[in-house]
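Case 382 in the screening queue. Each case pairs one protein sequence with one candidate compound; here the compound is iron/sulfur cluster. For every case the pipeline is the same: read the inputs, emit a complex structure as tokens, and attach any notable structural observations.

Predict complex for case 382.
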Amino acid sequence: HCPVGGLRERDDTQRAFAALADPDKITVVQVAPAVRAAWGEAFGLKREEATMGRMAAALRRLGFQYVFDTNFAADLTIMEEGSEFLHRLQAGGLTRWPMFTSCCPGWVRFLKSQYPELTHQLSSAKSPQQMFGSVAKSWFAQTLGVAPEKIFCVSIMPCVAKKAESELPTMAVDGRPDVDLVLTTRELVRILRADKLDPALLPEEEPDSPLGVHTGAGVIFGATGGVMEAALRTAAYVLTGKNPDPDAFAAVRTGPGLREAAFELAGIPVRCAVVSGLGNARKLIERLKAGKVHYDFVEVMACPGGCVGGGGQPISVEDEELYGVRGQRLYDLDRAEPIRFSHENPQVQALYRDFLGAPLSQKAEELLHTDHKAWEMPGQRQ
Ligand code: SF4
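Case 382 output:
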């Protein structure tokens, strides 16, 4: 918070109320994995009480017509980004520089401004937030038999940078933005309070299908190391034809802001690094540039601890850093899920079978991938 009030937090809650009151809009809401680990703090709920089921009930009471889960799109991201990684690895294109994850807009912007010459090393996969919006306005709109323009897609995110990401000209299909409105966890708390909703009194309700179905691999996206771990689970399956132990890649989980691990997938050595915090990202890139380290796949999250420590999450009165316990909550949820591999998500399988064809197909490229070079940082030409 700015001590002199010179900087103000952008508040989009009125736009949410306007959309909910518009009879011409079909309101679809997605909830990011990290939000479920933190939203209950503002209402004094224990972590086990602040469930996605209560969140679904609360969002329906607010008036959202379809309550979905960004975790569905996290599973989809793994299918696309994991396939891209294997493609790059097998094509031998990762000898000097790794593939960088692209789901954190804070990191993407940092790389483009500080090391623009490395932009092409970013995965071309859109973030789960954007993939979700793109699928909601194509496959889901088609399922409903409505024009994509009727769908108003709202995201509840732990992140303020997601607002800017959703407004990038590249995060649109045929000129239509994938996502229409992004609310932070703090804004969600504000609209629930404005409607006098007490989540503690609400029942557990299931999110809607198909975009509310997810696996444990999608849940861990909200913690540092989660994207890497989920991708390795599916990459191991693709290369060997059988599922590994879902905890086989636990070495990349929550830990110091810069950590590394090496694995062998079907005889192929894979060198990984996981980074959270942009100071650590700079250290890693300087080491890569100096030739001191070599990796194949690098996950970077701008916020310490990943999205659970995001800039849109509740701020506790004690100013305590809670990302450790929030991250642990996501790993507990992953362990409790009956399915822990993104490639086993039945609705992601249906999406490929009925609509996209296969990962990296032409349709998947059009809807789920982007060109990071197609937009410029303010005042900078690449
Ligand atoms: Fe947003 Fe932080 Fe998550 Fe990046 S790590 S997506 S900036 S909340």
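Case 382 observations:
- The first strand starts at residue 26 and ends at 31.
- The longest helix spans residues 70-90.
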